[in-house]
Amino acid sequence: MLSNYRKRFYYYTKSQKRGLFFLVLLVIGIQLYIYYPRSSDQYIVDQYSTLFNDEYQKQISLLDSINTIAIAKRDTIYPFNPNFITDYRGFVLGMSTAEIDRLLSFRKENKYVNSAKEFQQITQVSDEWLKTYSAYFKFPDWVNNPKVKREYVDYSKPKVEVPIVAICINSATLEDLQKVRGIGPYYADKIMKEREKYGGFVSIQQLKFVYGLSEEVVNELYRHFKVMNAPTVTTLNINEASINQLKELPYMNYYIAREVVKHRSMNGDFVNKEGLLQIEKFPIDKIDIISLYLRFTN
């Protein structure tokens, strides 16, 4: 019997078979829809509700944030130079047409307002307007901090130098020494210690032997100081003095004193300071100063 039904099925045309197949599918679909109506509809509603709520709330929050920023930016007033207020800017700030025209007429004369008070005088804005917006006025730095006008110096005229009145180096104070260009507290103190070491300077040339002073600074010292009151010096007889006595003299030491005594014993007494030039390693540059502490005759 099954074979009879199968044979009958083969008698249908291809289009009839296809229509029958889709009819069966349609019947099955309708049955499923009728069987599961509530569950499927509720699922769609739940999915749509969840999607709508989450995305909608995000979009609403984003739009609110953008709107808040836009409003704040619109209402924010940044510092500005009132000289360059335009028609539109003045209208936004609440200025009347007449007030704006007064400012623009003033600016056409290539003039500038340099204070809030002057702005009010030109534009005739109200005190209330000025109180509200003058805090945002920003003028150039040269208006608020004008440069000090320098006194004109005519360099074409020859400079008249004030004559220097020299003072005694042995009575000079630290303040006196520091008045010389190139002498600060450090070198002033060194000069004072050198003077104290020798009991006073017997020659102004002694300044050039203060360690660290340049030739230019020493020449400046020569211009400002002289030896007017030389210390009392007890001269030492070079032809009778011992090594220990000679080594105590300024700029002398044991080895030089020994060579002086040795030369004296081998060549006889010294007649003058030139005889010291024959001694090896004698400080020739200090010979004039050392000789002031010596006596060559009895």
Level of helix content?
Answer: 40-55%
Rg result: 55 Å
CA-based shape:
elongated
Through-space gap between termini:
174 Å
Class per helix and strand makeup: mainly alpha
Strand order of the largest sheet: 1-2
Summarize model confidence as the mean pLDDT.
80
Number of separate strands: 4
The largest sheet is: 2 strands, parallel
Return residue spans where pLDDT drops below 50 for at least 5 consecutive residues. none
Give the amount of beta strand, in percent: under 5%
Order of helices and strands: HHHHHHHHEHHHEEHHHE
Tell me the number of helical segments per DSSP (H or I, 4 or more residues long): 14
Organism: Myroides profundi
Keywords: Membrane, Transmembrane, Transmembrane helix
Protein name: Competence protein ComEA helix-hairpin-helix repeat region
InterPro entries: Endo/Exo/Phosphatase_dom_1, RuvA_2-like
Structure description:
There is one protein chain. The protein has 298 residues and is mostly helical. It has 14 helices and 4 strands. It has helices spanning 2-10, 14-35, 37-75, 87-92, 97-108, 116-123, 127-133, 141-144, 174-178, 185-197, 215-224, 243-246, 254-267, 287-290, and strands spanning 167-168, 225-226, 236-237, 294-295. The protein has a two-stranded parallel sheet. It is elongated and about 160 Å long. 11% of the residues are buried.
